[in-house]
Structure formats: structure tokens, C-alpha cells
Known about the structure:
Number of strands: 0
Order of helices and strands: HHH
Shape: globular
Distance between the termini: 18 Å
Structural class: mainly alpha
Amino acid sequence: MILTYCRAYPKVVNALKEWYSEMIIAEKGSFQEEKTNYPNASLVGVD
Length: 47
């Protein structure tokens, strides 16, 4: 899904790569913890 978005919006590729790298190496925590680093983040696809 990220690659599809990168193809559609090439100007954001570097920002998405940086975010993805941070998420891979970050410890698993709660969504609320992630809001500290990314205050504008929102959950997507939560049922």
C-alpha cells in the first residue's frame, strides 16, 4: 500500500521512507505513544 501511495504522490516518497524506517525499528507500543511523535497521526482501517 505504501508503494502505491509513493507512485501516486512522488513528492512524499522520502518522508514515507523515513516514517517507515522509524516504525520498523521502533518498539511496539500503543497508538497513543505514537501520537507523541506524530501528533497528526490517525488510525486507518480499524474496525
